[in-house]
Each structure stands twice: as structure tokens, then as C-alpha cells.
Amino acid sequence: MMVLVLNGVLQEDCPHDSRSLYHTHPVYRETAAQLLGVPNKIIGPVGLLYVQQRELAATVPHDKNVSILGADDVTTCLIVVVRHSGSGAVAMAHLDGSGTDEAVCTMVQRVQELALGYPEGRIELQLIGGFNDPRHYSDEIFYNVMNSFHKQPVEIDLTLACVGELNTTIRGGIHWPIIYGVGVNVKTGEIFPSTFPDKGPDHSLRCARYLTGVPQVLDIYDCNLGLLRIGPFNYEPLRGVDLWLEQTDDFILQHLSTSPEVEPPHFVMQVRATLRYIQENQFPAVTVFRDNRPHYYRRDEHAGTWTPIRY
Predict the structure, then answer these.
(1) Which one of 85, 245, 268, 295 has the largest count of C-beta atoms within 10 Å of its C-beta?
(2) Would you call 1 helix, strand, or coil by DSSP?
(3) Run of H or E including 249
(4) Among 5-9, 44-48, 118-122, 163-167, which stretch is predicted with the lowest mean pLDDT?
(5) CB–CB of 163/138 below 8 Å?
């Protein structure tokens, strides 16, 4: 069964790229323009659940541990938000084209599970990010994600697509994304452009997953227990990690980014920190996740930040 609903109409086919979506359904231009008109907010760590590349998380409006789901540093990637209109249950993912089918399936499942027992509602989909990049990575990911939702056995309403050409500005002859990140207010479902200086715990460990090519999208949160859960997972030792670390910043930028012209300024620093982490932890299944245990974090009631649970 194929059921993607665009502008209230069930679709037989999935749009091939964002350009054809905007051409056939101009209403999506208007909703995107509204989001682009909202000033960017800088959000601190209190009440934030930050979702990294190749991660997803889902929660409910009455979650006392999480008030904002957020993701940023998105250039060619896509931020995907799935929300149930009756219960307000909401999931967010930061997708880069890897593990898409499974991630989309999990997001829809989580939101349906969390919506059980609440009034009837629709499943709404919002897509933010990606731009008119010279290598067309963004369009490929957009199609990949739309197609995955199109294959779901439930009706899914696309309510926002702020992607591709609409999320692109030209400066100095170079195409740049306008919005690099968004937050979702879990109480209201409101989405707003934002930047998150604090990426939460185990940052380098979490980055190591996609840098070493682990394809799965990781579900990082248990909203029934209010626990941020990282792992356990393994990655292959990265061959030549010492050599990578000897390279110049520009070399790292050119070879380890899908969009080297427009990365945020901290990109190379973050990659170096991750490479060092991989160098020091070549076999995380052994040295990081001892006895195959996840790293659990709970919200500290006084500080409002994530603190590790010690076994």
C-alpha cells in the first residue's frame, strides 16, 4: 500500500525531487517561507535531547525530561520530524541516506506506540534541511526519505518541506543552506530554526559511528524511563587513522565532508576529536561498552543536563 498525502491528496507516485514537489504543490513553498522567516535561536542543554547524524529519538508532550528535540550541523542531510496530531507524540531523526528504510519504519512505529489510547489523529511529516548542493546529495536523500515514507502502510501527511532550493541562498557565487538546524518544542510541536552548542554526552563516540561507516540509525532515547541510551555498538577499526590525523584542516574538510564549501566552522575540530577517539578506542565493543552494556544518562533534576548512571 502506498500512502503519502500531499496537500490533503493521496498520492500514487512519490515526487522525484523537491523541485517537482514545489512545482506541483506550491502550498509547500508558503509553509517553508514561514519557517525561513523565523529567527535562529541558540538553545542550551537544559531540557534538550540532541539528535546526531544517524540517530533518532521519540517522546511525548508530558515528558518531564525533554522539552526540545534538536538537530543541527545539517548541510546535505535531512532532519525528519514525525508527529501524531492527536497525542502530540513526536520523533526526530538526522538522516544522511544510510539506514533510511529502517529508521523511517521505527519512527512511525514509535509515534504510533506512544499515541495509543489518545484521541484519533493524523501522522504528520516535516522535512527540513538539504540545499541546492553542487553534487546533488540533498536531492538524493530527499527522494530516498520520501520513498521510504511512501512505502509505509499508514497514511502520512507531509505538512512541511523546507528543503533543496527553498533552503538555499547564494553568497559569493556559492550555494549555502539557510537553515542548518531546527528544534521541536515537544509540548506544542512547534518547529524553529536553531543552533545547539551543546551536543550532549558521548559526542565523539556517537560521531565515530558514521565516520567509520556503521549504517544503522540508532534510537537513542527511552521516553518511558526518561533515559538517553547510547550503544552498545561496534565499529571497524579505521585504517590509516594516524595518517588522517597528520593531514591539514583543508585536506580533512575536502575529503571527509559532502559539502566542504559550507560546513560550520567547528567541523574540522569535531572530525579531529572523533578521529582521536577512534584511534584510542579501536574496539568499542571491548573497551567502551564493557559487558555489552549501553551508556545510560538521566536528566539531573538540579542542573537540567544529562548525567551518567553508574552501575
Answers:
(1) 268
(2) coil
(3) helix 249-256
(4) 5-9
(5) yes
Confidence of residue 311 (pLDDT cuts 50, 70, 90): low
**Number of Cβ atoms within 10 Å of the Cβ of 74:** 24
pLDDT at 238 over 90: no
pLDDT in tens, 205-233: 999 999 999 999 999 999 999 999 999 99
Asked if residues 80 and 127 have their Cβ atoms less than 8 Å apart, the reply is yes
Tell me how crowded residue 212 is: count the other CB atoms within 10 A of its CB.
Answer: 17
CA 152 to chain centre: 19
State the pTM of this model.
0.96
Distance CA 191, CA 202 (A): 26
Residue 1 has pLDDT above 50, yes or no: no
CA atoms of 15 and 127, how far apart (whole Å): 14
From CA 54, how far away is CA 173, in angstroms rounded? 31
Residue 146 confidence (pLDDT) above 90 = yes
Distances (CA, A) of 273 to 4, 21, 177, 242: 41, 39, 25, 13
Q: Which residues contact 94 (CB under 8 A, 6 or more apart)?
A: 51, 52, 53, 54, 55, 56, 71, 74, 77, 78, 79, 80
Q: What share of the chain is helix, strand, coil (3-state, %, to 5)?
A: 30, 25, 45
State how far the alpha carbon of 239 is from the alpha carbons of 158, 182, 250, 254, in Å: 42, 34, 20, 19
Task: Give the three-state DSSP class for 55.
Answer: strand
Q: What is the pLDDT of residues 3-20, one digit of tens each?
A: 678 888 888 888 888 999
Smallest Cα–Cα separation from 278: which of 208, 199, 215? 208
Q: With CA atoms as reference, report the closest residue to 235 among 256, 209, 202, 274.
A: 209
Q: Reply yes or no on whether the pLDDT at 60 is more than 80.
A: yes
Q: Which amino acid is at 27?
A: V
Query: In sequence order, which ranges of 62-202 are alpha helices (DSSP H)?
Result: 100-114, 137-150
